[in-house]
Amino acid sequence: MDLQIYGFLFALFLSFTINGAALQENPSGKNQMPATTASQINSNSVLVALLDSHYTELSELVEKALLLQTLEEAVTKHNITIFAPKNEALERDLDPEFKRFLLEPGNLKSLQNLLLFHMIPTRIHSKNWYKTRRHSTLCPGEEHLPVFQKSGEKMVSMAKVIHPDDIIKPDGIIHGIERVLIPKSVQQDFNTRRSLRSISAVIPQGAPEVDPRTNRLKKKPEKPVPAGAPPVLPIYSAMAPGPSLAPAPAPGPGGPHHHFDGETQVKDFIQTLLHYGGYNELADILVNLTSLATEMGRLVSEGYVLTVLAPNDEAMAKLTTDQLSEPGAPEQIMYYHLIPEYQTEESMYNSVRRFGKVKYDTLRLPHKVVAEEADGSVKFGFGEGSAYLFDPDIYTDGRISVQGIDGVLFPVEEIKVAPKAAPVAKVVAKPRRGN
């Protein structure tokens, strides 16, 4: 029992001895190392105070510059002093071009250097402001930051301190200043970038301009190309991309192996039609009323490519019962809308612009569908039975191309023999080319 009492008294004496020595070394208790660790910042830290302070513009830039971890490591080693520019200085006083330069992702290092230039690894209280003293900053490789008094006012470089000792914490102090401090390295980076941008922005005078739609040189004023005019460039420049029949796959053991899953591709484009909206009637005919979906899948599996001219729901609603009631009528109508070539809106438009009228083969042999340029789009068919390319490139996967049109097409022979109906004014919606 006596040994336990003696041990307790010895520990108590040792504790008083250590604490007394610490107080003698720093009786005021100021400038103590912050109670932080490398992995955790005290809630009473100057960094937490900065993020919660009225210096909102500076705190946002610190977060955008990814500097929190760097500053956490700094306050674990020593006190810091932060010279915080007022919000107006960062919002209005900075040149817009310079601020845009700082916020560009490629200039993250410049933004970090500018912010670290406002911080020094020393605790400077307002009552300890020297007449002239230069301090190193947290910005690596920069010149020292002068801290001095001028005409009774506290200064940091060229900025006046407007809120001295604004925030005081155990591991640092924040002083409010009237303007932003810009280190020389950041200013040089900005000047270099601006000079390069001004050089690269010079447009050569007299350089030829090429029309991407026609591959022709633009002229001023540009005259429209008349329909049927001979091409300036070789005919191959206007041909549609890709052959009608893909190369056959190499045969292997047990017979040829096809690398195209046509059935899946057809299901995919029909599903795309449903998600796109406005083409439910066509999808219903392909899947439920005919076996066309299966036939198209077989063709694609064998290496063929297809372009589908897809009438929208408004066009399909105009079909009469007589037109659909005869055996095989839905299939014949759809066959006339299937072109055994892979065409996109751009390739068809290039062709009709160059040649005036273009005839495409269809799966309804021997009938062809005629296309021509009209109103900045591609028009198929003749007269009242014509249809415009209305929804371009709904589906293009390199094997199947789906182009939305605003009418149902019929061969010219059927249009001539069809009974004459009451004239109906055809309202052509504005083609949605390029959407």
Automatic annotation (TrEMBL):
Residues 1-23 form the signal peptide. SUPFAM superfamilies: FAS1 domain. Keywords: Signal. Pfam families: Fasciclin. Residues 42-181, 266-394 form the FAS1 domain. Residues 205-230 are annotated as: Disordered. SMART domains: FAS1. It comes from the Eukaryota. Belongs to the fasciclin-like AGP family. This is Fasciclin-like arabinogalactan protein 17. The gene is FLA17_2.
